[in-house]
Amino acid sequence: MKREELADLLVAAWGQAGWSDLLALVAEQLTPELVQSLKMRVDALKLQHARQALAIAHVAEAVADTINSPVALATAALALGNAQHARGQYQAALAHFCHAERLFSQQHDLDGLARALINQIGPLQELGAFVDALDVATRAEAICTELGAAATLYRGVLEQNRSALYIHTHDYAAALISAEHGQSYLRDVGADDRAAHLDLNIAIALEGLNQLDAAAARINQGQAALAAAGHREELSRFAMSLGALAARRGRYAEALHWLDRAELGFAEAHIEHEVAFIQLIRAQVYQNLNLHTDALCLAHTAVKPLQQAKMRAQVALALLVQAHSLRTTATPDRASRADALLKRARRMLATEGAIASGRLLEIDVARLELGVAHGRIPLAQRHISRLRNHPLLSTYPALAARVALLQLRIELQCVQPNVAAIDARLRSIHAEALREALYEVEIEVHDLFSQTALLRHAQEQALDHCLTALAIIERIRVQIMLDEPAIGFVERYQAIYERAIALAQTQSNPQFTLALLSFAATAPLPNSSRATRSSPELTALREQWHHQQAGPLTELAAPQSSTQSKRLAELEATIADHWRRMQLQAYGSATADEQQSSPLLNPHTADAWVAQLQARLDPDTALLHYYTVDGLAYSILLTAHQPATSIALGSAALIERACQAWRMHIDLRVKGLHCTLGLNHAHMIGKRLYDSLIAPLAHGLEGSTRLMVTLPATWHDLPFAALWDGKQYLVERFTLAFLTAPVAFGSTIAHHKQGGTALTIGYSDGGRLPAALHEAQHMANIFAAHWPTTLLLEADATEAQFSAATAQSQIIHLATHAIFRPENPLFSWLQLADARITVANLYQLALAHQPLVLLNACETGRGAPRGGGLLGMARGLLVAGASGLVVSLWRIADECAAMLMAGVATELCASADRLDAAAALATAQRRIIVHEPHPFAWAGWIAIVG
Known about the structure:
Layout: H1 3-13, H2 19-25, H3 32-45, H4 50-67, H5 70-86, H6 90-106, H7 110-126, H8 130-147, H9 152-168, H10 172-188, H11 192-208, H12 212-228, H13 232-248, H14 252-268, H15 272-288, H16 292-308, H17 312-327, H18 332-350, H19 357-373, H20 377-388, H21 397-412, H22 419-436, H23 439-455, H24 459-480, H25 483-491, H26 494-506, H27 510-521, H28 536-548, H29 562-587, H30 603-616, E1 621-629, E2 632-639, E3 645-651, H31 652-670, H32 679-693, E4 706-710, H33 730-733, E5 735-738, E6 758-762, H34 770-784, E7 789-793, H35 799-806, E8 811-815, E9 818-819, E10 829-831, E11 836-838, H36 839-844, E12 852-856, E13 864-866, E14 869-871, H37 873-880, E15 884-888, H38 894-910, H39 917-931, E16 941-944
Parallel strand pairs: 1-4, 4-5, 6-7, 6-8, 8-12, 12-15
Antiparallel strand pairs: 1-2, 2-3, 9-10, 10-11, 13-14, 15-16
Helix pairs in contact: 1-3, 3-4, 3-5, 4-5, 5-6, 5-7, 6-7, 7-8, 7-9, 8-9, 9-10, 9-11, 10-11, 11-12, 13-14, 13-15, 14-15, 15-16, 15-17, 16-17, 16-29, 17-18, 17-19, 18-19, 19-20, 19-21, 20-21, 21-22, 21-23, 22-23, 23-24, 24-25, 24-26, 26-27, 27-30, 28-29, 31-32, 34-38, 38-39
Protein name: CHAT domain-containing protein
Pfam family, one: CHAT
Domain CHAT: 686-943
């Protein structure tokens, strides 16, 4: 039987009954050459069909064991190592390559020895043993030199592996030289396909050297060559590497784009462990974007397939990601769970010896951060002393910077820190951060510089450092492109925003303070939203989500059972992940263009911005921006005729307590305890708030009839309309319009009555909300006298109808049930006939006509503070394109809600020219006050105009 025929026979019989009998039957035909033939099959298949390649490698091992030839055993060991390396089983692969090295060395086989050594470099690199890998590369190079021209192919592979090592150790000049040499060697022997793989290494090295155009050209060149050769899995690995690189450099949208492409490729090839590894990298991206619940769930999901593939280093990394996500919450339970995960990861790697030292270092740094976060400073200081002398720390610039910055943060907590010494070390870290493009290290360095400047009483320098940090944050934020991850990223740095505002306040420059407040109040909304279609996978996940919550609706925001809650959290993390990927596909692969620093961050341009803002104010309008600094409340007042003025309001804690008293008052009313606290109690709270928030501004508000208000996120449910001066409510004197930030004023179109269409939707939720149908019908009748109107009731109020009709409407009204989910605001929802429309779904809309949206559903104006703003239904609709909203802050009786909505609609129709939601709402509220003076019935409605 010919050798290839015998190989076919053995491969086909592997794993079947009678395998041992067949092997014994053909024993005399088994040769080292047959093992070599099987190894060649492994090498041909390992990148595209890794599982099949591993099976063939086991056949080669069985054949080699049968003939017991050292050469055959060494060749089989190489085959097994190659197959296991392709499957991510780096520890097992390394063991087989080392075994092959010993066998070839015993036979004095330089050719085989070179191959065994070169193959060790890859798994050593993946296990973080960079020093050992470079040492092996040096040994391999010496043998290749001895072999001469016969080792040209080996030299090419060696330089390919060495360039990857230099990239990991951030020596981009050396990486470029190695990659170019490797590509030349491979082309000399006709290995053009393999040479194309090196385009990725060359591109990464060029990017590290800031040669961005050349790097982009190399990426395109390498992708084209691999695609032409049909290397789908290699294209996926190409994309995975680009995603990981983009994430390290703070280009998160680009990272998610590449990771999505890589995952799709591996999923098509059914390579589960690679899919899991990409999910793990994506979890790290989400971790950096402050999306810790999603990061935790993704990392947890990745563990099982990584364990099945025996990828111990990657399992340890998954545990590390979970621990970091748990660390962000200050609860003792989660802190202890995080510590347990880190200890488990360390035990897992400790058995691997020196080759796992890189991963162990990363875990030790994470344990150090956990200790600092939870106040275990003496223990943290001992860890720092040990880590600073770690021989590998210098090969991990990002880890080294984290350790150094943690030490400086601890030193700043001393009674008399050595500020000059701290500044000197910060300058050194900053230089390294610039050299390695560690943008987030730059942010932290400037944060600490601002703190040392304050210790030197150099307020201006402190502010300059804060502004520099904010400019870097903004540069990263604009490239994220998606709103929800962007505000999550901004949330990480709220302390810097707050310090900048406090420092601006000390300069007595209210124009610049207002500009900074507007910048910090919320991450700016995207210019427009793009409608995104759902994928079959996302549709199936949403159906599963609906099924998991099937049954009678409850007033609880989440399931009571901890098991149900955990299952729901994992499902929602998966849905959110798919949703973000779909959104990024709609936006395309390109990151946002590099933008100049915001004029709001420059004191010189801030004056011009405030002047433009002032010019847009009508003579009867006053803009109020409330904020807190160091426990005191302030408001900046701006009118068309008066410059910006900062006015002190007193203790912020007093206002917070009044807000809390109001929340308790409303909660009792919602529960039907009307007799416990009546109108007098509401007036008492309203008067307390009026005296704090409005009375100090009385002189500046003379002549104003309209207030444009921005509140701190934690005050968003403050009953502004119900503020009581002793004789009347605030809404009886002023029209109240709310802004997410002053920068949003005038950013949306002013609708005129002519043209456009109206949409009204009513859903009774199985008869539980019968008033919703009557309200929707009544609203449709009112609108129909002025606009072509679409009415969707009950079974017609489907998600598809909702999406199609909202895209064409100028006015949208919904009367249905809703739930606000404070623990996961992205999954707060509105009920339709066939689906619950979440905030994530609202983000996917494209409201092309920038409609005014009226929502009669519970708590649609509430949100979770995030990134200086609020994440909730209102923000989702504003991002989708809504020009204005009328939403509620608490649950209101159906009759009052219907009466108010009808009043708003009537006023909109009666207006002479443009649609003014704030004016219509104020008039409707004043009419209700005549019949129902208690603010519970009407003050929960607010008009958001930008």
